[in-house]
Design a protein that fits this description.
α1 (42-60) runs parallel beside α2 (76-95), α3 (105-112) packs across α5 and α4 (120-130) crosses α5 (140-166). The chain has a single domain, classed as 2-Layer Sandwich (Nucleotidyltransferase, domain 5), CATH 3.30.420.10. With 167 residues, it is α/β, with parallel strands linked by helices. α2 (76-95) links the parallel β4 (64-68) and β5. The longest helix is centred in the C-terminal third of the chain and has 27 residues, at 140-166. The protein has helices at residues 42-60, 76-95, 105-112, 120-130, 140-166, and strands spanning 2-7, 12-20, 26-35, 64-68, 99-103.
């Protein structure tokens, strides 16, 4: 199974494609971050995200997309911008015919680090360890996107096993 994880952000939108084979081994295919310039109009930033995610989907052919669920932000303006970015990511996935699954930050950190309130640096280190990378992914947004993809692979695998056991 191949998953595109997306960490939506107003300044950087992280992405990562992870594949899991039939033995459960994880493999890193690509990761990075789409840098957005705050001086650019919002519509151009959203267009840049849409174009980059479309290219990643075409290049790596993920089966599903996993994103971080909406969280409550103190700053309303930031929450609105994040909502715009999430909407674009979901639209690009839908246009490619891909299902989108959302996970809470607590679920993502728990799946990857084992502790729902882990620090970003802990997430980076565990993602590197799980994917056997030579160094923690940079920027942290890329590590977060990979963590989201890993969370979905672990969750989907557990659900499949539970369905098989129920039969």
């Amino acid at each position: 199974m191949r998953i595109l994880g997306i960490d939506c952000g107003g300044e950087y939108t992280g992405y990562g494609v992870v594949e899991q084979d039939c033995t459960g081994s994880l493999r890193h295919l690509c990761s990075g971050a789409i840098r957005l310039l705050s001086r650019d109009p919002l519509e151009l930033r959203l267009k840049k995200i849409a174009e980059a995610l479309t290219q990643i989907i075409h290049a790596y052919c993920p089966e599903e997309v996993a994103i971080e669920d909406v969280f409550y932000a103190v700053n309303v303006k930031s929450a609105l911008k994040l909502g715009h970015v999430r909407g674009v990511a979901m639209l690009v996935a839908a246009q490619a015919g891909l299902a989108v699954v959302a996970y809470s930050p607590l679920s993502i950190k728990s799946a990857v680090v084992g502790y729902g309130k882990a620090e970003k640096s802990q997430v980076q280190v565990m993602v590197a360890r799980l994917l056997e990378l030579p160094a923690p992914p940079e920027p942290p947004d890329a590590a977060d996107a990979l963590a989201i993809a890993i969370c979905h692979l672990h969750t989907a695998g557990t659900l499949r096993r539970q369905q098989t056991d129920a039969c």
